[in-house]
Amino acid sequence: MSFYVVMGFGAAGAATARLLLEQGHSVRVVTRTGRPPEPGIEHVAFEAADSARLTEAVRGAVALFNCAAPPYHRWVAELPALASSACAAAEATGAVLVVLGNLYGYGPVDVPMTEALPLAASGPKGAVRAAAWEEARKLHEQGRIRAVEVRASDFFGPGVTDGGHLAARVLPPLLRGKPVSTLGDPDAPHSWTYLPDVARALAEVAGQESAWGRAWHVPTEPARSVRQMTDRLAAEAGTAPVAVRTVPAPVLALGSLFSPLLRELKEIRYQFTRPFVVDASAYEAGFTVRATPLDQQVKATVDWWRERLNITG
Questions:
Q1: What pLDDT digit, counting tens, does each position of 240-295 carry?
Q2: Half-sphere exposure of 79 toward its Cβ, with a 13 Å CA cutoff?
Q3: What stretch of H or E contains 250?
Q4: Residues in contact with 225: Cβ distance below 8 Å, sequence separation at least 6, in sequence order
Q5: Measured CA distances, 206 to 42, 97, 235, 282 (Å)
Q6: Rounded to an integer, what distance in angstroms lies between the CA atom of residue 256 and that of residue 249?
Q7: pLDDT digit string (tens) for 47-91?
Q8: Half-sphere exposure of 142 toward its Cβ, with a 13 Å CA cutoff?
Q9: pLDDT for 218-232, tens place per residue?
Q10: How far from chain centre, in Å, is Cα 20?
Q11: 3-state SS, residue 57
């Protein structure tokens, strides 16, 4: 049994902590506000940007998983301090730093995304994500820490709620046979990374020295449009196919006046108006995790949402 520390307990942090527990490890989770008791997982509450406290929490750990994510509209202000604190804790303790990243750092591109693409995002959230990894990568190259980043596309699956584009805005109306709304083009190919596969990839690279020092894409099923995914979800749910409607730009602009989340989504709207496709072949060539078959993803997601919403079917 090994000891691991997970920063953050959102969808990815929770999935990672619980997977490590299932694998027989000891797990400590660090969050700002703490969590209710959970068998087998130690929850501690403090601000993870406090590097001294984080270092003490990480002592003795094999790896530190940075899955922390402030509220979306506070990314630019708060992510840099969290990233730097994680690097400092990894340097002081010797724990492998495993960073959960995303694809924002590449910015708009016209090809399937590989890890070889430059981090050329011009928007603030993409830039701050890229800078966080560059800080860790440089420290790794200097021999001061051991670090690896795992990048995922939009999360999909059980446990993904308000932050998912195929989650709280789609599943509740879909399960009731009602239309759903989406950003951008509902027929543009889009990669959806299954949340349990994210956790499995994070856990795998933590123990693979050959993975350290670079970024990897989580194995992900072939890209499918929002319409294709909603059709698959509706078929699994046993409802008729539902209409998929694009949120008109004026409506999005109006909503942005009142919703910090909608204001921030402007930066990544390009991800839904053009193909947004991830290539994870490099990961698959070197490691064992593979994308869960789509049928299993869809069934698990529909079942989870039915239970959450107390819908029988």
A1: 899 999 876 665 565 655 566 666 667 788 898 999 999 999 999 999 999 999 99
A2: 22
A3: helix 249-256
A4: 185, 186, 187, 188, 189, 190
A5: 20, 8, 37, 17
A6: 10
A7: 999 999 999 999 999 999 999 989 888 889 999 999 999 999 999
A8: 10
A9: 999 999 999 999 999
A10: 17
A11: helix
